[in-house]
DNA sequence: GGCATTTGACCTAT
DNA sequence: ATAGGTCAAATGCC
C-alpha cells in the first residue's frame, strides 16, 4: 500500500498512512503464521474460516482508513441514500493506492435517539466513531452526519450487514424480539451481557434481511460502544493451561471445534452469540508465535 | 436455584 | 393510531 492521490497530504497524515501501511503488512505476516494456506485446512473448519475473514476485514479496514485520509471530504459526506458495500470501500482504497480518480463516497451512520444521548452523558461514557469491519453502511437516520459531529464523537449508533451477526467479539444477552411491520423476519434486541455488572450501555439489534436465504444476511444495528472489560472465559483458561505448544490449532482438539461450548447453549441455538464471541476473545488471547 | 430466553404489556415517538 | 423499543414476569434449561 502506497500513498497516492493528487493533493499533497499534511505531514501527520503521511505519517499515519505510513503507520497504517506498516500495520497492514504486520497483519498479513501474522495471518500467514496463524492460518494455513487459503483453501486448505481452513476450509474444513468454519472457525478458521472465521478467523481468516476477520483478518480480511482488518486489512480492509486499514485500506478504508487510508482512503479516508486521502479523501476525507468525500468520505465523510453523509446524507446520500445509496448503499456501498465493503468491497466498494476496498476498491476505493485500491483506487487511492493507484492514484486513480474515484467516485465520491459517503459514509452512512444512524443516530440513536436524544434520550439515549442523555443517558450516555449521565453515565460518563464517551461515544466515539467506530467503523464496523468494512461491512455495508446503511443510509443515515433523521439527521445528517457532519464532519464536526464525527470529530466530536457524537455518533452513537451504526449499522452493518453481515452473514454472521453474532460473531462480533462480544457477549450479548437477548432482551426482546419484535415483529416489524412489512418485514418478513422479526427484529431481536440484545444488550451487552455486562450491562448489570459494569453498566455497559452497548446494545444491538439483529434482523434478517427480507428475501435473504442461503446464506441469510442480517442487518445489525449497534448502539453505543462497549465500556466493559472483556470477561475471561473457561476456554481461555483451557488455552492457558495447554499453551505449552502455543498453537492456534491447539484450540481445536480432535480436529473439531464442536468441543467449544457455551455453558447454557440450547440445542436450537447452536450459533449463540455468547459461545461465538467467547471463542473470538479466546483466539485473540492465545495466539502465540512458535519459538 | 440460578441464569438466559421468551413474550405480552407498557412506553415513547411520529 | 401505529410502530418501534424496552421492561419484566413467566418459562425452560442446566
Automatic annotation (TrEMBL):
Coiled coil: none annotated. It is found in: Nucleus. InterPro entries: WRKY_dom (IPR003657), WRKY_dom_sf (IPR036576), WRKY_plant (IPR044810). Residues 242-262 have a biased composition (Polar residues). Residues 168-226 form the WRKY domain. Residues 242-275 are annotated as: Disordered. GO terms for molecular function: DNA-binding transcription factor activity; sequence-specific DNA binding. Keywords: DNA-binding, Nucleus, Transcription, Transcription regulation. PANTHER family: WRKY TRANSCRIPTION FACTOR 21-RELATED. This is Putative WRKY transcription factor 46. It comes from Apostasia shenzhenica. The gene is WRKY46.
Amino acid at each position: 500500500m502506497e500513498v497516492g492521490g493528487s493533493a499533497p497530504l499534511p505531514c501527520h497524515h503521511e505519517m499515519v498512512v505510513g503507520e497504517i501501511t506498516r500495520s497492514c503488512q504486520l497483519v498479513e505476516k501474522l495471518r500467514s503464521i496463524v492460518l494455513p494456506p487459503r483453501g486448505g485446512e481452513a476450509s474444513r473448519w468454519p472457525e478458521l474460516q472465521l478467523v481468516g475473514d476477520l483478518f480480511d476485514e482488518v486489512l480492509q479496514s486499514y485500506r478504508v482508513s487510508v482512503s479516508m485520509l486521502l479523501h476525507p471530504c468525500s468520505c465523510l459526506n453523509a446524507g446520500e441514500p445509496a448503499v456501498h458495500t465493503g468491497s466498494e470501500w476496498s476498491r476505493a482504497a485500491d483506487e487511492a493506492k493507484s492514484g486513480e480518480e474515484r467516485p465520491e463516497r459517503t459514509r452512512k451512520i444512524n443516530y440513536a435517539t436524544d434520550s439515549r444521548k442523555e443517558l450516555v452523558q449521565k453515565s460518563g461514557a464517551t461515544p466515539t466513531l467506530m467503523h464496523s469491519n468494512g461491512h455495508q453502511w446503511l443510509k443515515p437516520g433523521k439527521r445528517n452526519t457532519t464532519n464536526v459531529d464525527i470529530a466530536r464523537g457524537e455518533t452513537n449508533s451504526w449499522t452493518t450487514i453481515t452473514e454472521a451477526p453474532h460473531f462480533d467479539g462480544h457477549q450479548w444477552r437477548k432482551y426482546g424480539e419484535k415483529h416489524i411491520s412489512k418485514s418478513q423476519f422479526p427484529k431481536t434486541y440484545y444488550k451487552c451481557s455486562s450491562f448489570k455488572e459494569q453498566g455497559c450501555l452497548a446494545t444491538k439489534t439483529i434482523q434478517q434481511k427480507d428475501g435473504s436465504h442461503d446464506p441469510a444476511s442480517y442487518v445489525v444495528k449497534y448502539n453505543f460502544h462497549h465500556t466493559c472489560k472483556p470477561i475471561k472465559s473457561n476456554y481461555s483458561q483451557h488455552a492457558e493451561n495447554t499453551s505449552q505448544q502455543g498453537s492456534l490449532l491447539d484450540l481445536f482438539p480432535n480436529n473439531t471445534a464442536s468441543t467449544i461450548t457455551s455453558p447454557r447453549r440450547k440445542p436450537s441455538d447452536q450459533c449463540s452469540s455468547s459461545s461465538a464471541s467467547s471463542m473470538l476473545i479466546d483466539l485473540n488471547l492465545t495466539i502465540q508465535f512458535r519459538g
